[in-house]
Amino acid sequence: MSQTKSAFGQAASLDTEHAVITRNICKNYGAVEALKDLSLEFPRGQLTSLLGPSGCGKTTLLKIIAGLLEPTSGEVEVNGRLINGPGPNRAFVFQDFALLPWASVMRNVAFGLELRGMPKSEREAIAENYISAVGLSGFENSYPHELSGGMRQRVGLARALSVDAKVLLMDEPFSAVDEQTRRKFQEDLLGLVQNENKTFIFVTHSIEEAVYVSDQIAILLPRPSRVSEIIRPRALHGKDVSNIRRDPEYLDIVDQIWASLRSYVE
Amino acid sequence: MKVGNIQLPGMSSLLLWGLIWEIVGRSGLTFFVPPLSEVIATLFSVIGTPAFLTALSETAYAFFLGVFFAIVIGVPVGILMGKNRLADELLLPWVNIFLSAPLTALVPVLMVLFGFGMKSIIITTTLFAIWIIILNARAGVKQINRSLVDMAKSFLATPWDAFFKIYIWAALPEILGGIRIGVIRAVKGVIIGQLLISIVGFGALFELYSSNFLMGHFWAVLIVLFAMAFAVSELLAYLERRVSYYAATR
Question: What number is the ipTM of this complex?
Answer without folding.
Answer: 0.82
